[in-house]
Structure formats: C-alpha cells, structure tokens
Amino acid sequence: MNKSYLFKTKKTDITKDVALRKTKRRWAVLLLCLLLLTPTFAQTKDTTAIAEHQNKWNEVLKESRNNPAFMQDAFNTSITRMGINFEHRDANRHFQLETGNGHSLVNARVASYLRLDKHNTVWGGASYQIGKKRNIRFNSTSDYELLYPYVMADTIGGNMENEQYAFNGGYAVKLNQWTFGAKLDFKAEHEYRTIDPRPRGISTNITLRLGLAYDLQRYRLGVGIGGHTYKQTNNVDFYNPLGVIPEFHMTGLGTDYVRFAGAVRSAYYKGTGYIVDFQLTPLQESGCYASIEENYMPYQNILTELNALPISQLNVYQTNAQIGWKHSGRLNWTAYSGVNYENRKGNEHIAGSSSSTEYKSLITLSMFSNRKTDLHIGGGLNMGTKHCITLDARFGFIDEKSEYVDLKREMAFTKSYGKLSGQWLWRSNTHWLFEWNGNAAYYHNNSKRIIMPYACMDKQITQLVNETYTAKTEHLWQLATQIQICHTPEKWKGVGLFLNFGSEYSHTPTIHQIEINSSAGIVF
Predict the structure, then answer these.
(1) C-alpha to C-alpha distance for 161 and 291, rounded to whole angstroms
(2) What is the DSSP string of 375-395?
(3) In sequence order, what E strands does 452-509 have?
(4) Which residue from 299, 302, 285, 394 is spatially nearest to 344, judged by alpha carbons?
(5) What whole-number distance in Å separates Cα of residue 277 and Cα of residue 295?
(6) Domain that includes residue 441, residue range
(7) What distance in Å separates the CA atoms of residue 507 and residue 481, rounded to the nearest whole number?
(8) 449 phi, psi to nearest 5 deg
(9) How many beta carbons lie within 10 A of that of residue 429, not counting itself?
(10) Is residue 439 classed exposed, middle or buried when 0-12, 13-18 and 19+ CB atoms within 10 A define those classes?
(11) What pLDDT sits at residue 3?
C-alpha cells in the first residue's frame, strides 16, 4: 500500500474537518445570538398572532411575497418560533434512485416576523440540520434536484451523512405610497460518506432579492429583481486502493461523458443567475391578484483535476405565473389559475487532445433537454373566526418530456391530477389553539412513451432507466394529515409552547412510502 497516498489523504481530511468545526462554532454563535435577541421584540401575548400566521387563508397572496416589499404588511402581528423538528421518510422502492429511498433528519430552527411599527418590518431566521439520507444510487453529488443530469455517479452508492446550515433575513419600509424591501437567503450544505466510495460535497447557495411596490388607487403594483449564486466542490475518495471503482460523469437518461469516466473523481459546480418578478394585489379585502416570476440559472460543471476543464453547462429557465380573484365577507372565497414551467437545456463541451494535461474546449453541443409544464385551476373557501375552516381544491395537467440527442433517447409522460386540502383552527380561549390540516391528491397517468437504445446499454444503466420511468409514470395517491397544539399560559407573559405531529403516505402500484415529522418548541 502506498503510505504517501494514505498520509496525503488523511492530512487533507484533517484540514477539512478543522475548517468544518470552525464553521460549526460560528454558526452556533450566530444561532445563540438570534435566540437571545428575538425575545426583546416579541409581542405575542396570547394565541392571536399564532392563529393569524397559521391561517391558510392568509396564503392566498403568498406568491406575491416573493417580492420582499410585500412582506411589510403581510401580517398584522409579530411572532417568533423556536423549535426542534424530526423528519423520517422510508419507502420500499425508490421514487428517484439518485435521491435515495429514505432519510432521518433533525433540524433546529428559529424564525421571526416583527412589525417594528406601521412603517418598518423585519423578518429572518436560522437553522441547523443533521441526519442521514439512505440508499442513494447512481449519484455522488449534492443538490441533485438543482444539477441533474450532470452529476458524478458510481454503481455502488450507499447512505450519505447530511449537515446543513441556513439563515435568511429581510427588511421592508413603507414611505407614503411607496414600499421598499430586500431579503437575503443563504444555505450551506455538507454531505459525505464514511465508507468507500467516499463522496464529499460542500455547497453554498445565496439568493438576494430587491423589491419595490406602489399603491395605486385600489391596488398595489410591485416589481422585483434578484440574483442567485451557487458553488459546490465535489470529490470521491477511496481509502482502500484495491477497491477503487470508476466514477462516471452523467449527462442524462443513462448516458455519461465516456472520455473522462474512471479516474477523474473531482468536480466543481458554479453558477450565477437572475430573477425578475411582477405582482398585483388588492389593497382592500376583495379584488384581483396576479404574479409572474422568471428565473434563469446556468450551472457549469468543471473538472478540477484537468486544469479546470468545463465539460458541460446546464441552463435552467423557470416561469411561474398566477392570476385570481379574492373576495372577503362572511364567506371568504378565491378562484385562480396558473402555470409552472421549467426548461433544462444541457450543453456538452467537446475537449481536444491534451497538451501537458491541459485540455481545450473545441465545440459545444446541445445534447440534453427536459421540459415540465404544470397547468392548473383552483379555488378556496374560508369561514369562521374562533372556529376557522379553510378548504382548497386544485386540478391540473402535467406534461414532462426528457430527450437526449445521440443516440436518440426519450422519456415522456402526461398526468392529470386533483388536490384537496383542508384546515381547521380552533381557539378555545385566548391561551389554547388547536390546528388540523389534511391533504389528499391523486395523479392519473394519461400517456407515456420511452425510446432507448437498449442494445447498447449495460444491465445497471438499464435498471436505472427502467426504474426511473416506472416511478415517474405510475398512478400516484398521496394522503397527509397534521395536528398542532399551542398553549400560552397567562403566567408565562406571552411565551407559549407548541407541539406538532404530521404524516404523509404515498402509494403507487409498486411503491409505498411513509413520511412522519414531529416538532416541539416555544413561540412568543
């Protein structure tokens, strides 16, 4: 065994672990400061604020609050919640092989919304998460949902340890008819495995948004801009040189970048994108509301071992639009329609011959595409004050198609779906609040199509493609329920306790998945 190899590997890991411990201490100090400072601004004296912030009817205009200017008067009351949450998911088979069939995660979080006065509002939060994701296959890269299909992968897989830090903060001020707002979201994540193969991914994701709103007669008009930046360092190590297996750089629908498969086990992802949005909401209790948001994010995949050779770029375009009418009275109601669209275009860079381990990109080919469209209509009802009931129904159509140019590969399907959700809020007095939420959804497959060069595919890639196709195209049932109890004792001077428990069951002809979550904490 090569001793210098082992020494170099261990030295690198020690350096990384020291840096991670320092980062943990900084985050612990930040979270402690937030915990100590937030009670200074707390205004909750009973369950009034809790009921307002938990009421699903207040989510009718939720899409407009992506613009931070609309957070200035999103609620009439201030509230702070601190708690610990446990989440467990387990399935007999994978819905998505690359993301695993289960996880167990523990999360500590603090979140605040504070009305400083009638003109100034601040909000923010911080969280720390730790846990394990189980049985991940064909994926050695973090943030698969953001980066697919361009991830590293091997044929063994396994469990991944997960550690995540996040914080966010925003401020909005109203000056006459104008409202200005800004908010920042930051997330850092560390995922790794402690047995061969040992992938390690360290990622950061930052989003900054600025918003402006103007009150014009009966409506508020808003416009916002923002930017994303993303980075991830990703590598796979083997402590046993005799057990090294190839790592593949996947390019979509079971394909990979054959030229660099095998020994190239380090990659770097980066990207900077933009956000543009527009909002319209009624200033009075009733009126029309609308929102549209456009996102663009390019992700570059760079091989660090080959003098930072870029091998692919994924361009992600997202458009979300909604329009509806809201009416308030003895019976509150809303009706709406919307569309969510995503287009992922993958470009592969073809490299020339190496010169002193330096590669030059000769040509760029557009090889992969994935398009998703969700068209939907819906409506909601709300009634009551002390006993508040909210119902929402949504019906839609999903069309998804993935293609790879050469050799021709295609996976496509359409589904119709219906969702029904309900909430019951009951305040027995000013110090007790009971909340129940229920959801039911059904996704019916209308059509499906797959084209694959099976004669050229090995057994494991065939399994990956077929299991993915089956999971995506089967009929799906989902049932969920959640119960929360809040109590603010009079002697506690506005500080209360909350307990929450929820579960969700997902069922297809071949997959059965159960997810449970529970949380407890204080609110003030």
Answers:
(1) 38
(2) EEEEEEEEE-SSEEEEEEEEE
(3) 476-487, 496-507
(4) 299
(5) 9
(6) 3-523
(7) 15
(8) -155, 135
(9) 10
(10) middle
(11) 40
Give me the average pLDDT of each 10-residue run along the chain (524 residues).
40 47 52 48 67 95 97 96 98 97 98 96 98 97 98 96 98 97 98 96 98 97 98 95 88 94 92 98 95 98 91 98 96 98 97 71 93 99 94 99 96 99 91 96 98 95 97 98 95 91 98 98 95
Q: What single-letter DSSP state applies at residue 522?
A: E
The residues, ordered by sequence, that sit 6+ positions from 327 with a Cβ below 8 Å of its Cβ are 285, 286, 333, 334
Whether the link from the prior residue into 407 is cis, omega within 30° of 0, is: yes
Helices (H) and strands (E) in the chain, counts: 4, 21
What's residue 494's pLDDT? 84
- The tokens describing 15, both together, are 């350096």
Looking at this protein, which amino acid is placed at residue 259? R
448 CB-near residues (< 8 Å, 6+ apart): 412, 413, 414, 469, 473
Compute the distance between CA of residue 323 and CA of residue 337 in angstroms, rounded to an integer.
Answer: 6
Tokens 């009733």, residue located: 286
| Distance in angstroms (rounded) separating the CA atoms of residues 397 and 418 | 9
Question: In which element (H, E) is residue 217 found?
Answer: none
Give dist(CA 175, CA 178) in Å, integer.
5
SS3 (DSSP) at 100: coil
Q: Which helix (H) or strand (E) holds 9?
A: helix 3-41
Q: Based on the structure, what is the number of domains in the chain?
A: 1
Token pair in block for residue 341: 């669209």
User: Which strands make up the sheet holding 152-153, listed edge to edge?
Assistant: 152-153, 248-252, 255-256
- pLDDT tens column, 90-105: 999 999 999 999 999 9
Q: Which residues, other chains included, contact 492 with Cβ-Cβ below 8 Å and sequence gap of 6+?
A: none
Query: Side-chain half-sphere of 186: how many Cα atoms within 13 Å?
Result: 12
pTM of the prediction?
A: 0.90
Can you read off the two tokens belonging to residue 388? Answer: 């508040």
